[in-house]
Amino acid sequence: MNSIELEQLENQYIPLRKKKSRMRYRVVVIGGGTWATAIIKILSTNLEHIYWWVREEEIVEGVTKYGHNPLYLSSVFINPKEIKVTQDIRQAVSKADYIVIVTPSAFLHESLAPLQKSKLNRKKIIIAVKGIVPETMQVVTEYLRSEFSIPYSSMAVISGPSHAEEVSQEKLSFLTSASPNLELAEIVARFFKNRYVRTSVSNDIKGIELAVVLKNIYALGAGIYSGLGYGDNFIACYVSNCLKEMKRFVNQMYSNEDRQLTDSVYLGDLLVTAYSRYSRNRMFGNMIGHGLSVKVTLLEMKMVAEGYYATMCVHEINKKVKANIPIVEAIYNVLYENFPVAVEMKRLAEYFV
């Protein structure tokens, strides 16, 4: 055997390059839907210890036996050797130092009910859910602070224009990690940053969380107008008016000199939720605009449209705040007071500029 043949033979047995070293933080993801599944995919590129709590036995079986969530984003591969999935929320939380909450806010109170305060208030909490807890009419950070005595310095919000379907396809997306504890915000940003996700940090945890709640309501309104037959020209005007209303309400609730609502975590998230074919809130509104009743629409929707629940909550909150939010109030009238859809939305449109 000559030297050239020997070199070729040796090259066949060069070991494969090892995986990039992953961080050793222990993290649990709470929730089994589309966004939770996409988050599992993101985190698995960066973290060595990931636990996953889900309600459904089908998901546990699907992940452990076949490496897929059979109910949501079933095309995403989940390595069962790397992700420990369970239906026992107490066990999952006990194993982790960081908790990523992704279960819909409408079901958050019920989901966390089995947990004792002492088991949660020593953890770092990452909030990836977009809504208000209806039992207490609070955004999630306020709910966790009052119900579990978790300080704001131990919480972060991860948000941005990021539909789970596109993240699962590894399409470039941008997320912002927000916390008054900038060290925590930086850690969370590292958890989520990878080849197809860019991250930034902010201290505006309250403003971002409230803006996310509002954008779901506004996306629902965009869907209603689309279902009624209004065109792109009008809906662009509608969204610009939504941004003005968002600015008024968020700044009245939580002042912050550094807040720029043109940043992607505010405006970008509003735009993608109002326009995207993946938007559940836009889809919900579109069905209402086409003449379906709220009751039928709720039955037809396979996934939760946070904007529906958020509309009631923001309406109740505004009884105390008394901010000028005519768009939210018009959508509330349609969803909860049975106002004629076409008449109410046409009346609202008269005020747009």
* Rg calculated over all Cα atoms: 22 Å
Determine the strand fraction and express it as a percent band. 5-15%
Structural class: alpha/beta
List SSEs in N-to-C order.
HEHEHEHEHHEEEHEHEHEHHHHHHHH
N- to C-terminal distance: 83 Å
Q: Name the CATH class of the largest domain.
A: Alpha Beta
Number of domains: 2
Proportion of helical residues: 40-55%
What is the overall number of helices? 17
Fold and architecture overview:
By secondary structure, the protein is α/β, with parallel strands linked by helices. The chain has 17 helices and 10 strands. 46% of the residues are buried.
List keywords for this structure.
alpha/beta; Rossmann fold; N-(1-d-carboxylethyl)-l-norvaline Dehydrogenase, domain 2; 2 domains; 8-stranded mixed beta sheet; two-stranded antiparallel ribbon; globular
Quick summary:
The protein is an alpha/beta fold and 353 residues long.
